[in-house]
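Example 5.3 — YceI family protein
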Amino acid sequence: MRTLFLLFIIYFDLPQVQAQENYMTRNGQISFFSSTPLEDIKAVNNEVASVLNRKTGSVQFIVLIKSFQFRKAAMQDHFNGKDYMDSDRYPKAELKGTITNMSNVNFSKDGNYPVTVEGTLSMHGVSNKIKSAGNIIVKGNTITAAAVFIIKLVDYKISVPTIVSKKIAEKVEVSVNCNYQLYQPKTK
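Solution (predicted structure tokens):
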């Protein structure tokens, strides 16, 4: 239900939305991974809401921070706590961007199309411009978007207490994998 609500928000937030141009998902996946000699940290969120407009190339993702799942409950508690993501205060992360080379993607022909996304990533009360390479995979009526990029914790004012600084990397690898379906408005 939370993801459906987020999808509703981003759908009506997109400029000049036309239903036949939009692909949507409410169960996309975003994961992150950090590694140090002492510990690897990985979390997965399978409740990502996203809309991709095939005409304009606009793309938007909304992620609830508390929906990231860790292999250890203690990691998840620390991640959501005030010392890290402070998810009660900053409950979501959001990316609003544009695929800058959308004209290279042929939605009527199956294939793997390299793309570049530029936009603004907002989380933990901070917004930064990002640019990432990715891929759009067209297979029938399904569109898959995949990307991997690196963020620095300091860029989002996420501090790591000194006592655990050797267990948490300063840079985190973020992976995106969303399977979109063409938005079909319900008819009466």
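Remark. The longest strand covers residues 22-35.
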